[in-house]
Design a protein that fits this description.
The chain is α+β, with helices and mostly antiparallel strands and 120 residues long. The chain contains four helices and five strands; from the N terminus they run H-E-H-H-E-E-E-H-E. A five-stranded mixed sheet has the order 2-1-3-4-5, covered by helices on one side. It starts with a helix and ends with a strand.
């Protein structure tokens, strides 16, 4: 491995760390309890991080939580937009995660056909 490859790895790791901490306009929480992981939550989390990174969105934090009591809807994702109700999505796939980034996080329009709960 050369210095350029190491630099790229370091930059990618720093971007991912920034996506997982700090203060932001949007917070995305992926349920990573046992049932969520079994249903594919790791791939969903990776898709969110990848899509947000590709779009160079810097005001979004992606994090994870444990079980949410919604095992029949896993993988479950919560989206907290500043000043808006929390939207909970169920049965999230990597493809849907990318759509949520595009439609909800970027344009402010929840993907209503996959919303399982809205909290004020």
């Amino acid at each position: 491995m050369n210095l350029e490859q190491l630099r790229k790895i370091r930059e990618r790791a720093a971007k991912e760390l920034n996506l997982r901490s700090g203060k932001a306009r949007v917070k995305v929480i992926v349920g990573m309890g046992t049932s969520g992981i079994a249903a594919g939550a790791r791939d969903v989390l990776a898709a969110f991080l990848d899509e947000i990174g590709k779009r160079e969105l810097t005001d979004i934090i992606v994090t994870q939580s444990g079980e949410r009591g919604l095992a029949s809807s896993e993988p479950v994702v919560e989206v907290h937009l500043e000043g808006k109700p929390t939207v909970v999505y169920g049965h999230v796939t990597p493809e849907l995660a990318r759509r949520i980034v595009s439609e909800h996080l970027v344009n402010g329009n929840p993907v209503t056909d996959h919303v399982i709960e809205v909290r004020e």
